[in-house]
C-alpha cells in the first residue's frame, strides 16, 4: 500500500469496506452516506442516508456476494475521490452477473463518506 | 428536455458532444479538458489536457463509433455533475464491444469541462 497514491489507498479501503458491509448486513450501510448523498440504482434515483439504506435493504435477495474485477481511483479538483468498480456478484442462487458501480468520496469531519453512488448491472452490454 | 433536472440536461448534452467529437476527430477533444483533468484509460493514468489528447489520439484504430446503452447523471455537493455511460463501440473492423465510462463535469468560467474521466472496456465481466 505504501507506494500507492493516498487517494488510491483511501478509495480501495472504502471499496473493500463497502462491499464487506453490503455482503454481511446491508442495513448497516447508513454510516457511509450523508443526507446529501445521491444513489442511482439501475436508473432509479434516491437521496439521503435513510432513503438509500431503505432502497439497498429492500433489494429482493437474501444472500449476496460481490467480487471485484477492477477498480480505478482518481483525485478530483474539489479534494474528493472518484472510484469506479467493475465486478461480478452472486445473489442467492441466481447465476453470477457483472456489475459496475461508481462512488464519490468526500472528507467530512475527518471521515470519508460517499456523496454519490451509481450502480448498474452489466445486463445489456455484451457487444 | 424541459422536465429533466438541469444536471441531467447538462450531463447528457456533454455526453452527446463528447462522443460526437470522439467519433469524428478525437484530436479535437482538448477543449473539453483542463490542465488539472485526470484520465484513467483501461487502468493507465494521465493528467492534463495535452497528455489526455495525446493518449486518446494515439489509440490504435482509425474509425470508431460509440453507441450509448444507458446514461446516469447526478449533481455532486461541490456543484459538479457526475455522469456514468454504459455503451458499445465498434473500432475499425473489430467486433462490437461493451464499454463503461464516467465523467465529472465542472463549471469553470461559464463552460462545463471534464475534470475526471475513467474508461474501461467490458472485456472481462460477463458473469
Automatic annotation (TrEMBL), chains A, B:
Keyword match Manganese: no
One BP annotation, GO: mRNA transport
Range of residues in the leader sequence: none
Lineage top rank: taxon: Eukaryota
Record keywords, A-Z: Cytoplasm, Nucleus, Protein transport, Transport
Membrane-spanning segments: none
Domain NTF2: from-to ranges: 10-121
Keyword check for Transport: yes
GO cellular component: cytoplasm; nucleus
Compartments, record wording: Cytoplasm; Nucleus
InterPro entries: NTF2, NTF2-like_dom_sf, NTF2_dom, Nuclear_transport_factor_2_euk
UniProt function note: Has a role in nuclear-cytoplasmic transport of proteins and mRNAs.
Protein name: Nuclear transport factor 2
Species this chain originates from: Gopherus agassizii (Agassiz's desert tortoise)
Phylogenetic lineage: Eukaryota, Metazoa, Chordata, Craniata, Vertebrata
Amino acid at each position: 500500500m505504501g507506494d500507492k497514491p493516498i487517494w488510491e489507498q483511501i478509495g480501495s479501503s472504502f471499496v473493500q469496506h463497502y462491499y464487506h458491509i453490503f455482503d454481511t448486513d446491508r442495513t448497516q450501510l447508513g454510516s457511509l452516506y450523508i443526507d446529501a448523498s445521491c444513489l442511482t440504482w439501475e436508473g432509479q434515483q434516491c437521496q439521503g442516508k435513510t432513503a438509500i439504506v431503505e432502497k439497498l435493504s429492500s433489494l429482493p435477495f437474501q444472500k449476496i456476494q460481490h467480487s471485484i474485477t477492477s477498480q480505478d481511483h482518481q483525485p478530483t479538483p474539489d479534494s474528493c475521490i472518484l472510484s469506479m468498480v467493475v465486478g461480478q456478484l452472486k445473489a442467492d442462487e441466481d447465476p453470477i452477473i457483472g456489475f459496475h458501480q461508481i462512488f464519490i468520496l468526500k472528507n467530512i469531519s475527518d471521515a470519508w463518506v460517499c456523496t454519490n453512488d451509481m450502480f448498474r448491472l452489466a445486463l445489456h452490454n455484451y457487444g
